Amino acid sequence: MTQTGREIVTAAEIRLRDAGIDNAAGDAQILFLYALGRVLDRTIPRHTLRDHLTALVPEGLPATYETMIAARAARQPVSQIMGRRAFWKHDFRVTSDTLDPRPETELLVELALSQPFDSVLDLGTGTGAILISLLADRPQARGMGVDLSPAALDVARGNAQMIGVQAEFAVSNWFDAVTGTFDLIVSNPPYIALDEMPGLSPEVRDWEPRMALTDEGDGLAAYRALCAGAPGHLAAMGRLMVEIGPSQGQAVSALMRDAGLVGVTVRQDLDGRDRVVFGHKAGQHGI
């Protein structure tokens, strides 16, 4: 049966809405354009959506689109279905082995780039989105990303190569495999407390790597390790910058101060929630 794009997108929207997806219309349209691009073997610009909705769909599109809509109805994130996510200035490959880069994390990148640095360490790098974004804007800097997951590191290496960034990657439990000092240490660690996990959306709870989400405890274990290890790996005046959950600003700030870091500051995201905490190692005169 011959169908128009609008007919199959409308049916998909109803199916996604019945599956409990808030942005059913938007997701149905995004996946339609992606499926169309796969069938036609080219990128389909968003502004051409109206034309493709009124046109008859090409052979092969309904089956390809159905596979994607079924995955989305099962609450697989759109980024995993498409295999990519836009972050900062680039598209990054994402898989079920990596945390999906969030727009909120761009604040960490923005703040990190507000001051110069010649070296950066990213702990729990995942897709490499933070590290690669920083190095792309500071091509003279050297960078290292570590993660417990070899599969995630494979994704990060591929993203670095795709974007044209040189970086070192290594399997490490936080600082265990790290030597030397850095001007900047960044991290978006697992900060969701165990008792908060059931309240997460299925897209996060069921599809993203659990060890990138929670420490199976109070959500602060990673910050204890980061703050304890950072002073030994920061150059004089080097900065530690971490993303946090919205209720963790006070606790993480205290951990940084207890570790001897100074100038500890909490910054809010666009929604007014505490999002990034940072402090720096004192210089030669204790500044």
The strand line-up of the biggest sheet is 5-4-3-6-7-9-8
Q: Given the helix and strand composition, which structural class is it?
A: alpha/beta
> Radius of gyration, rounded?
21 Å
- Fourth-tier CATH superfamily name of the largest domain: Vaccinia Virus protein VP39
Enzyme class: transferase
Pfam families: MTS, PrmC_N
GO molecular function: nucleic acid binding; peptide chain release factor N(5)-glutamine methyltransferase activity
Organism: Paracoccus litorisediminis
Provide a descriptive summary of the structure in words:
By secondary structure, this protein is an alpha/beta fold. Helices cover 38% and strands 18% of the residues. The chain has 11 helices and 9 strands. The strands form 2 sheets. The chain has a 7-stranded mixed sheet with strand order 5-4-3-6-7-9-8, sandwiched between helices. Strands 1-2 form a two-stranded antiparallel sheet. Helix 7 (129-137) links the parallel strand 3 (119-123) and strand 4. Helix 1 packs parallel to helix 4 (61-73), helix 2 runs antiparallel to helix 4 and helix 10 packs parallel to helix 11 (249-258). The N and C termini lie far apart (73 Å).
SSE arrangement:
Layout: H1 5-18, H2 24-40, H3 49-54, H4 61-73, H5 78-82, E1 84-87, E2 90-93, H6 106-112, E3 119-123, H7 129-137, E4 142-147, H8 150-163, E5 168-171, E6 182-187, H9 202-205, H10 221-229, E7 234-243, H11 249-258, E8 262-268, E9 274-280
Parallel strand pairs: 3-4, 3-6, 4-5, 6-7
Antiparallel strand pairs: 1-2, 7-9, 8-9
Helix pairs in contact: 1-2, 1-4, 2-4, 10-11
Pfam families: MTS (PF05175), PrmC_N (PF17827)
Organism: Paracoccus litorisediminis
Protein name: Release factor glutamine methyltransferase
